[in-house]
Amino acid sequence: MKTNKTIEAAILLSQMDTVEIEKVGETTGVKLSLDPARSNANFRVFRGCGDAAGAIAEVECRTTRVKGAAKGTLIYVALNERLAPAGGEVISRLGKPQSIQQATGSAIYVYQVPDGELRFAVKTGSPDVVLSIALEKAPSVQSAASRAAKWGSVDLTPVSS
Question: How far apart are CA 63 and CA 46, in angstroms?
Answer without folding.
Answer: 9
